[in-house]
Amino acid sequence: MNVARIVCKCAWGKVTPPNESDASELPVWTFVHDQLSWSRPAQGQVKDASVSVEELVNYDEFLIGNYPHKGEEEDAEQNKRLY
Length: 83
Known about the structure:
By secondary structure, the protein is α+β, with helices and mostly antiparallel strands. It has one domain (3-19, 27-80). 25% of the residues lie in helices and 13% in strands. The chain has three helices and three strands. It has helices at 3-10, 59-66, 76-80, and strands at residues 12-16, 28-31, 57-58. A three-stranded antiparallel beta sheet has the order 2-1-3. The longest helix is centred in the N-terminal third of the chain and has 8 residues, at 3-10. The termini are close together. The relative contact order is 0.20.
């Protein structure tokens, strides 16, 4: 496992649905926990108090969910390079 993949699995943030005015129509992941952690942070550890712990997604989960790299999708090969 390379360093970038480790960081992706330890960086926690929230996903904002795509904006109607956004031409790419992709959700946005925003970093909300200022320390890397293998496990989901507790509510008191999140720098943005308005974000609930249940909303937290690590960056690796976000990439896999929004840029699938397996299967028959036409963008699968391009998305695979993101990892």
